[in-house]
Amino acid sequence: MNEHIDEDGLADPVFDRSRKYRNLPLIVIVGRPNVGKSTLFNRFLRRRRAITDPTPGVTRDPIEDVAFINDKPCRIMDTGGFKLDREEGTDSAVMDSLVVEKTLQALKHADEILLVLEAGAATAEDEEFIALLRPYMNKLVVAVNKTEGGRREADAWNFLQYGFTEVHFVSAEHGDNITELAEAITARLDFSRVEEGAPEEIIRLAIVGKPNTGKSTLSNRLTGRQASIVSDIAGTTRDVVEGDFTHKGTRFRVLDTAGIRKKSRVKEDIEYYSVNRAIKTLKHADIVIHMIDAQEGLADQDKKIIAHAANEGLGVIFVLNKWDTMDGSPKTFKDAVRNLRISFGQMEWAPVLSLSALNGTGISELLSTALRLWKQLSRRVDTSALNLALNDWITASPPPQGRMNKFKIRYLVQTQANPVKFLAFATRPEAVSESYISYLRNRIRKDLGFDEIPVVLEVKGSRRKWEERER
């Protein structure tokens, strides 16, 4: 199976093996912090989907993907650790409570629960969590991790005193006994409901922006479920949290990313990987929803991220969130749009919307806009029609005719959709100025129905006309 690891070691966060499968059983991995749940999750996926770090409590939001366990497709979910020891009144304690709440909710939807314990003596957190799992004993599989080479297996047998019929000694990091664990997991699952079909078309929306702009609130609103933890604590979301929904017969996938801050303010290694993962998510999105706190406005980091998205050819929607806290007047919105246009002078094509993710106002317009952008991103123009238009554009604004900067545009082709890319062939490509490229790009956008998305136009050398090339 392919690893799908990026060159810096980070996995493709949205490599989608689930689009051709239906009704897959759900396996939920649970346990206290730092017992190796995320490492085991990645082991089953055969790629680094979840962030792993020795720091306890790295995973917060439940993250889900499709894995082939014992050659059978399953949905598998990594959850935050069950943490009993909390310093009450701190942000950490609040976050721990939210993480535990999410984990307990996930148990209710699981077809099978994989409890991960660490070799050695049981802790108070282990015992309390095992007590909470009593109602689910009939769908529980127990793995004792960190037993590589038989290490501490003798002590690990003591976990049988809690009423488990069997325990599996594994090493998530080294792969010891993973095959046996996979067989035990799939032996108890019902795969008769699993259906395989053709991959479906799906529009992928990446929600990006600074911390606390409402990204997770919007993600939860769109998917209709509380998949992402919502709090006022900066850096709450770490992994990319995914969720699907359908609107007007079209399937969407939402990618809720970590809040992106300046590097100088990113102090934890964990947050660095979270931010890096969020940026890499743009490679696998169709449309970027850039969340902006209507009261706070933009930051320099916003500009860098959106410039990156535009250069990748992604659709971009600017969303002024928390609009319910503003006066709501047309002038206020007009001023906000003008400020955005000043900050993003080359992106006057990107739609700007106002909404309240908390109250749900503006959601319908957001999705209608996303569908409109998707149609433009998917549009292809016939080459003959494209070159008829090119002749008109050249006639309206001929290239320079000086001896040093003279060139001719021979013909134009569309090389790609989503992202939309064109290739112009010129007699002297080095002489084609950026201003003339910009002119052609703007005419493509205005005249051919790409007015709300970025258009990539490259120039290559050719001395043949289109008609000659055809012959």
CATH topology of the largest domain: Rossmann fold
Q: Any idea what the radius of gyration is?
A: 26 Å
What is the CATH-assigned architecture of the largest domain? 3-Layer(aba) Sandwich
* Biggest beta sheet summary: 6 strands, mixed
Cross-sheet strand order for the largest sheet = 3-4-2-5-6-7
Approximate strand percentage: 15-25%
Identify low-pLDDT runs. 1-18, 51-59, 227-238, 261-274
- Count of discrete structural domains: 3
Gross morphology = elongated
Tally of helical segments: 13
Distance between the termini: 45 Å
Give the H and E element order. Answer: EEHEEHEHEHEHEEHEEHEHEHEHHEEHEH
Average pLDDT confidence is 81
- The top-level CATH class of the largest domain is Alpha Beta
CATH superfamily of the largest domain: P-loop containing nucleotide triphosphate hydrolases
